[in-house]
Amino acid sequence: MKVLVTGGLGYIGSHTVVELQQEGFEVVIIDNLSNSRIEVLDQITSITGIKPQFEQFDLLDKEKVSDFFNTNRVDGVIHFAASKAVGESVEKPLLYYQNNLGSLLNLLQAMLRTDQDHFIFSSSCTVYGQADVLPITENAPIKPAESPYGNTKKISEDVLSDVVKAHDFHAIALRYFNPIGAHPSAKIGELPLGVPQNLIPYVTQTAAGIREQLSVFGDDYPTPDGTAIRDYIHVVDLAKAHIVALKRLVQKEYQSPIEFFNIGTGMGSSVLEVIQAFEKATQQKLNYKIVDRRAGDITAAYADTTLANTTLGWRAEKSLEEALKDAWEWQLQQK
Ligand code: UFG
């Protein structure tokens, strides 16, 4: 079976390509290299022994997308390619709406026109905002988005919901909680451009001496230690969720033409707990200080993963310590 992975050289995409290849899928990657490096292709190849087909172009190029589906038949599409920096999306909303929605529309149009089905969409727990009830189930109300980035995830889910109603088309949206870690081989991982915005790359860069000090954004949240709580999931566990979702689509096991699943561990960890777990897992001392809250941050989010556990037969297997250790091993590989 052949699968198209858009954004397949990015952080989650590259880990998913590895898992797909190891499960025997033939993979074709489309990536414009806007936030990824071509070297990742060789790294994937060195892990799996198989070089994926690679096409370098932008999904906003409608003609290229159309040509691709004219000349390739795939059993499914896993769509990662998107802009993902929350802060940048506030400054450049049109860029985010154009990139994230334009590429989705071009893909869907070409797939429908060439009669190709099965779509897995990278969604986010950001659609729940600050949920009123924890852990968060898939039935929790969708809240107004806090950023244009978050809004593109919500709108994309809506687009897919409308498309599956109108056409013979099937999709699964995976709502990721906080992906962290790297492949245990330390050959692929997260490659943040410039100063990291997310917690774990900031932690590993601080421990590596690239950043002087980690700022902990707020210790006055209504949580046991005052710092914000998230559900941190190992990127390899997350990657594996895409394979089971893809099989569900291909084997027509779905119960409705679009399904939504939370993909997390089900466990919440505070920022201070993450720091402690990192120090324990890596034997590194972390220099940090408490600063003010970061604008737009929520207090706590962690998944109820019952639906994914029972319906997909998937569950996260790796611990927070393991994810942090793998993130650290990956950091040590960076020059
Ligand atoms: N944090 C710090 N210091 C830092 C970076 C982060 O204390 O230098 C804290 C944040 O305040 C937050 C936690 O660490 O409490 C996690 O922050 P991240 O930036 O790693 O992750 P977020 O939960 O803010 O964002 C993630 C994804 C987004 C997505 C969002 C949905 O990165 O793409 O979840 O809630 F939109």
Mean model confidence by pLDDT: 98
How many DSSP helices?
11
Number of E-type strands: 13
Which geometry do the CA atoms define? globular
Shape-level CATH architecture of one domain: 3-Layer(aba) Sandwich
Q: How are the strands ordered across the major sheet?
A: 3-2-1-4-5-6-11
- Helix % is 40-55%
Radius of gyration: 19 Å
Q: How would you spell out the order of helices and strands?
A: EHEHEHEHHEHEEHEEEHEEHEHH
CATH class of one domain: Alpha Beta
> Which fold name fills CATH's third level, the topology of one domain?
Rossmann fold
- Low-confidence stretches are none
What proportion of the residues form beta strands (DSSP E)?
A: 15-25%
Protein described:
Strand 2 (26-30), helix 2 and strand 3 form a beta-alpha-beta unit. The chain has helices at 11-22, 39-48, 62-71, 86-91, 93-113, 148-166, 199-207, 235-250, 271-282, 306-312, 320-333; strands spanning 2-6, 26-30, 53-55, 76-79, 119-124, 171-176, 178-180, 214-217, 229-230, 232-234, 258-263, 269-270, 288-291. The strands form four sheets. A seven-stranded parallel β-sheet has the order 3-2-1-4-5-6-11, with helices on both faces. Strands 7-10 form a two-stranded parallel sheet. The chain has a two-stranded parallel ribbon with strand order 8-13. It is α/β, with parallel strands linked by helices and 335 residues long. Helix 7 (199-207) crosses helix 11 (320-333) and helix 9 (271-282) crosses helix 11. The mean pLDDT is 98. It has a domain at 2-183 and 233-264: Rossmann fold. The protein is globular, with a radius of gyration of 19 Å. Helix content is 41%, strand content 16%. The chain contains eleven helices and 13 strands. Uridine-5'-diphosphate-4-deoxy-4-fluoro-alpha-D-galactose is lined by residues 84, 86, 124-126, 150, 178, 197-199, 202, 214-217, 228, 230, 271, 294, 297, 301.
